[in-house]
Structures are given as structure tokens and as C-alpha cells.
Amino acid sequence: ASEKNYKEVFEGLLEVAIPLGLPINDEKVYTRYLKKNEYVWVYTGTMRNGKKPRAKDISAFVEKDVWQIASQANHLVAVKNGYVYDTWDSSERMVYGFYVKKENKKF
Predict the structure, then answer these.
(1) CA distance 49 to 37
(2) pTM score, two decimals?
(3) Is-contact 71 25, C-beta < 8 A?
(4) Other CB atoms closer than 10 Å to residue 30's CB: what's the count?
(5) Tens digits of per-residue pLDDT, 47-102?
(6) Any idea what the Cα angle at residue 90 is, between residues 14 and 75, rounded to 5°?
């Protein structure tokens, strides 16, 4: 979702994690890393049916062809145009919110 390769992201997360003494998958680490790379948090709230949106639904919050990094229970997942990029099918799991590049935020 960041258009960086795995090694670049890993090294960037390490730069944040080591001074904090935390693992790279800690929420404090990835939140700081994403903010440092100009991502903003978008809270999704609930839909009209009273439920949280699912990963495959959140593309409605941004323009077409925009990458999102969705936050699910103990999990982050990349989403673009309603398609979920993950090692397993997490498209039906609810999303608390997502990160998106600052320039792609619609509201």
C-alpha cells in the first residue's frame, strides 16, 4: 500500500521501534511510522444498518485506485478498489478505521 518494497518498510519500522524498545508490529510503532510517512487515520464509524464496515466496503470512503491500510482486530490489511490484499481472506472482517495518504483523504 505504500509502494515501497518489504525491506524499505521493515527498515523504516525498525527505525521507529528500536528507540522505543518495542517490536515492529506494536501499534505505537506502526502508527508513528505511518504518520511519519504522511498517512492519516480515518475512523469509519458505523453504517446505516448499525454495523461496522467490512474490509471490502471501505473503498467507498476514498477515490478510485487509492490504497488504504485497514485496521481490524489485531490485524492490518491493504485494500484498493474494494479488493483486500492479505495472506488470507479477511474481506468480511469488520474495520475500525483505516490509514490513507494525506492527499487522498476526501473529507
Answers:
(1) 34
(2) 0.86
(3) no
(4) 21
(5) 778 888 999 888 888 888 999 999 998 899 999 998 999 998 998 999 999 999 97
(6) 30
